[in-house]
Structure formats: structure tokens, C-alpha cells
Amino acid sequence: MKKTTILFVMIFVSFSLSMLATSGRNVMWWKSETEHFIYLYHTEVASVMTEVMGISEETFEKLSEFFGYEPEEKLIIILRGYEDYSNGFAFSSGKAVIITLGDFYPYRVDGYWFKTVISHELGHVFQLSMVNDFLKAIRPFLSRYLTPNALQPLWMAEGFAQLSSEIMNADSYDYRRLPYLLDGLSNNLLFSDSAIVDGKSPIGYEAVYNFGYAFINFLYESYGHEKLVEFLKFKSGIRGIFGISATFKEIYGKTYEELKSEFFQKMGKKYLKASGDIQEEILEAPKSEEILKLSVDNGRLFYVSLDRSNHLYNFYSEDALLYSSAYPIVDFDVKGSSAALVLLERDNEGLQTRLHVLDISRRRLKRTAYEHILRVQLINETTAVVVENEFSHQRIKLIFIDKKSHEVLLDLPDLFFNISQISLSPGARFLAVRGNYKGEKYLLFYDFLKHSEISYFSTVDFSIGGWENGHLLVASENEMGSQIFSVEPEFGKQLLLAIFPRSVLWPVCNNEKLLVVSQKEGFKIFEVVGEAEGEIVLFQRRTIQVDESEESIKGEIYEPLENLRFETLFPYFLGAGMYFEDYLSTTRLSLAAGYNPLNSSPQVLLALKSQEYFPFDIEFRLSFAGAYPDFHCGFNTPNLLDGPFYLKAGISLSFFPKLFGSQLSFGYIDYAEVIGGKSTFQNFITIKDVQSGINTMELSGSISVNWANESAQLAIGTKARAILFGNPELINFDFGKLSSDEKLALGANLSAEISLGVRNFNLLNLLYFFEQGIGGKFSFLFDGNPFQFSLTLYKFESINLYGSYPLKLCFGFSIENLKLKPYFNISF
Q1: Closest alpha carbon to 254 in 217, 227, 225
Q2: Residues 537-549 pLDDT 10s
Q3: What gap in Å lies between CA 477 and CA 473, rounded to an integer?
Q4: Which of 363, 383, 411 is the last residue of a domain?
Q5: Out of 30, 298, 455, 649, which residue is the most buried by the measure of CB atoms under 10 Å away?
Q6: Is the backbone peptide bond immediately before 571 cis, with ω within 30 degrees of 0?
Q7: Other CB atoms within 10 Å distance of the CB of residue 568
Q8: Are residues 250 and 109 in the same domain?
């Protein structure tokens, strides 16, 4: 049997296996419509659609009234039940994506998740897509992205989105947000451009949300609704391209800097005198690290922190670093010499959480088979209680890690109930659960002895922590701060322990000290000093009151090709093209025509591409250069293995000239902490076959390592190929700007960048200048011919356009095979 036939059989099997691969491709997508919306959702979340439709239409009505603007066509809402970094996002083209899995934000109080996230994302759509009558008339023929209101700082976009949620009574500037504002009133750097545009703050890009909400609310309350809408209408036309400075001066009669100064003065008068003092933290973590969670085991304090400068998650015991991860640590717990870590990994084509077990003494991490785990508590080193996500339906399970078996403890009523925290009592008698059902907060106790549940209801926000003498420690909202108290599970007796001047998370007792996580220029660990006594009644015993299950709305089966819509025009040589996309953004169609002055011939293009919908990706491309046609079609599988391993296969057909190709790639992609920085490793081996008049097969391999920390980046890569038989000219071998058509070729590169500091100034609030530095790249290619190389040295500037669109300018010179050339590059 020919080698090419064997490869083709392998690819065919790979296509079959892709039908079984775990990814978003395997869900059935449905489409439903209401008066103002088109909804796309998969079967697993269909039970929430009646509620979602009601919230969406109510939000549309209120935001239309508030903004004095109504979108000219139906808006698109896409619902997904997967784990993700984001909880939703929106486009100015009239589309919003909602992650149905509710989240627990340490920086703000969690309300009714669906109401909050839908109103927030629709707030983006309304504000960003708002245009004047002239642009409204021509936008359908030019581009859906013709939206001058999008030319604004990110903090402004997020401020209007959060105000939109407040209009729906789904958000407020609450006591969890307030600490960062208080810190900013005494330290102006916390609300500098570097913090609220570039995200260089102790709480990262949360400063963008925090300042944006507070400032837009200040404009709304101080100058009124009409002025705010007038501001948006002014910048919704051509004048919007000049940014926010001219608009502030025109509408408010003051510059942005003057309004910002007025904002700080008003906030200072409102909050500073009423706020209490907060003592210094007890553990001095690096300034760039924030504490995410505390846990105590046998008198030892453990915690997880986020190193924002190096994008790493660190797991500590007291001051000792036990493990550093390039993947987010979603939750953890410790029992004896074992720690359970839940990491958010990249798997197949998306993200998913997975349970890992760390041997603390050996510092060895073991990857388990348990996926989609949100929360974890260890009973012993081999048994754990976990919260599992199945397309937003959460279950509490008892798992036996080594035996790979489990039993369900609690099957939650529906997708509206979200679990944000769990805590297991010493001896594993009770499991405490913090739950949220449509904005109502519940504290549940599962009794392992009686196999029963006890539920308590709270009218205020709270956070659960550790245990002391059989009582759960809880911190709840208390005006601008928190009260810390204990709860006895069976009878619900609640005893006040202490008062703290700011919002508190994860209260624990360790060696007779009451410790909490609270904000002071980022989350840190504090010891609560001073005692308060007395019985309080915050929780009231009440069964979870669940609405009767809504009947699932399935609508009609979604077909991407039947739902293509025009998105935008794009330049094509000396001509133009039209770009179409389906509602899910999985199918893309391009039609273009133009004139190519380089070869003095007309150019025509028809391209159709489908990704992440069918079991494999499909691409068709037909183009004409004058009278000469070129036709290509390809079929590629997604990743067929669990990350970090990759197995992909594909076939391609081309006419003019006639070629049939196939390829199979096996690789490994992973992220890790190395020497205090975040590293990415990519290794691939590829077999490629091309059949024409001559049968040609190539074996190639590549290795790349990228490393970055706060002040430097380093990348090393190598690529090699060998033509096993056939004509090497049929298979391109490109390595950066270097290329080869020889049977054997080897290339390598090395690049480095070093930061020279931060400029931190802006030009008329249009261009924000941040990081600057120098860099260099060296590449060479050896294939038996004269040695090819390229050396580039450059200076770079990191610029943020309008405060929302980061770009990087590089300028310098390069030497390519002894030829000196200028070098200029723009990257986004």
C-alpha cells in the first residue's frame, strides 16, 4: 500500500473521531425570535429561554427610553453554557454573547446573574451602536461597524454598560466596589491613565470597570440624564472621531480633566469621612499580587494569589511558594500533604476547568480525569466534594479520585441556581454552600450524617470562610464595611465576632487569629483586631423557593448558511469586497472584485469558510487573476485529543494546477511558569502529502518557546523539514521572511524585547502612550544553498488609540542577506 494511501486512511479515521471529540461543535443549536431579538442557544440551556426573552425585551424597552435610541434591526443574543474567561461580551454590530454560568466576583456584589449580564451587554450594544440619522441611513450599505461611539476609552464603555444594569435594578456601586475608590481618593495613581486605560493597577482591568461606573454615575447624578444623552448624541456622528475631549467641552463646558477633578472632590466629601481606617496587611506579598482565597489546615495558612505583572497564579503556604501556574487557579483546598487545585485550561477549541492534585512535599502536580469542576473541598487526600458544571447545570458530587468514581450529593433545581463558595467542616459533618437563585442569597448546609439539607435565606450579601468550634465563619455586608460572625448549622444560631471597615471575603481562624481577605490597593490578608459580641439574626431558615420549571423553548434548528448577513465592505486591490457572516460567526463569505495594478489585470474573489460548527472545518476559495482561475477547497478536523496534546488532520484539493494534498499533525502546547515568567511551549510534527503529476511527501517539525515577565520577552524557535520523496517545490517551506525549495531545510530564530519604562501620557485623549522599549530578531535558514539570514533591530512604542484599541509600533532597520532595509511594523 502506498504511503499516501496510508495517510489518507489515517485522516479519514481522524474525521470520524472528530465526531466524538468534546467541543462546542457537538451541541445542537437552535434559533428563536421575539419582537426585538434573535436568540441562538444550544439544547442544554433551552430551559432558561422563557426567562431570558422576558429580561431581554424589558431591557430593550428601558434602554431605548434611556438612550433615546432604538436599533434599526433585531439584536442577536447568543447563549453558551461553557466555562470561559469572560462572562459575556458584545459587539457594536448588534450582537451579544452571554455565558449562562453565573460567576462570583470578588470586586462587586453578585445579583440576579441573567438580569445583570444581559442588561450589561445590551448596554454596550445600545451605547456603542448609537449613531446619528445620516450614519444610520448609510450604515447598512457600508459597515455595521460604522459606530463613532466606539471611539472612546474602555472605561467609558464599561461605565455606560454598568449604568445600564443599574437602570434595570440589576447592579449598583456597592460596598465591594467602594474600597478601590477610597484608595484612589488618596492615591491618584490608582485612577491614572495607566490604570484605567492600560489596566496597570493593583486590581488589573477591574479598575477600568470601577472608575468607569463611578465616573459615568457622577455625570448622571450631577448633570442629569439629558446632558448624558446629549453627550452620546454629539459623539455619535462624524465628530466622534475626535475623541471625548472635544465632546466634554462642548456639552459640559469643561474639559475631561476638570470633570475628573470635580469627581474626586465630590467622592471625597461623600465617602472619606464616613469610611473607617484599615490596618496594614499581615503578609507582605509583592505589590503586583492579589490574594484570591484563604484556607487553613492543621494550623497552616494557605492561599492563592494572582501575580498581575507576570500573569501567574501562585499557591502559598504562609510565605513559602508551593506551586506557580500559568493557568488560572479557580479554587483550591488542602488536606494533609495534598492540595486540590482547579485549573482553567485550554482544551480542544475552548476552555474547561479540571481538577489537579498537588503532592505538597514532592511539589508534584497530578492531572485527574475530572473535568468541568468549579469548586472543591477535600475530605481526605483521595476523596473530595466538588461542584461540577454540566452546561450551567451545577451538581455537588462526592468523588473518589483514585477510584475514578463518584456519587451525587445535591442535584440543584435548575440553571438559575449558582454556587459560588463551598466550605467543609472539620470531620466532614457539614458542607456549607453559598448559593444564588435569581439574585436571592442562600446559605445551605448538607449534613453528611443525616443525608439532608438545611437552607437559610439572607437579604444582604455575604461570604463564607472557614470553621471554628463547629461553627461556620461568615462575613456580611454592614453599610460600607462588613460584620464577621459565626453560624451554627443545625439551629442557625448566629454570634457576632467583629466589625471590619471594608468588604471582607474568606474569613478564617488560624492560631487564634481571625484573618480575612479585604481590599487595600488590591486584595490582601488582614488580621481583624477588636471584638464584638452579641447574637444577631442575618439568616432566616427558609426552603429555596424555586419557580416552576419553564418549558424548554427549542425554536427551529439553526442553519448557518441560511442566516448569513452583510457585515462590512473591505478594500480589495483597487476595488472593494463584501463580507458576510452568520449570526454565530462560524460561517464567513467574502465576495470581492478589483484591479491589480502590479500585473495590470482584474481580480475576482469568492471565498466561503466554516469554522467550529460542523465536525470539521471547511474552506472554499475561487479567484480569478484576469482570465486565469484558481480554485481551492480544504477540510480540517479540530483537535482530536485532550489538551495539552493536539492531533489534527486535513485534506485539500486545488485546481489550476491540479493538486490533492493531505496532512496529519501531532503536537503539544502548554503554558507554565519558568523563572518567574509565563512560558508557552509548542511542539509539532507534521506529515504532509501532495499528489499531482509527481507524488510528494514531507516530514516536518517545529519547536517554539516563548517567555515573558513584567519587563522582558524572549522567543526561541526552530523548524525543519525533509522531503521523503517527490518534488520539494510543490510544498512551500517558509520561515518568517526566509524560504526554501530544497529537500532538506533547517531554520531557527531568536527574538527579544526589553522594556525601557512607561511614558504614561496622552495626546488629547486620542493617543495614549504607555510602554516603550527596544527589541531584536535574528533568523537563519540552512538548506545547502548559500546561508540565508535576517537581523532586525528596532525601537517599539505601545500606544492605545482612543483608550480602547492597543497597538504596537516598531521602527528600526533590518539586514537580510547583507542587504540593509528600513523596518516598520504595526501590530494590534
Answers
A1: 227
A2: 999 999 988 877 6
A3: 14
A4: 411
A5: 649
A6: no
A7: 16
A8: yes
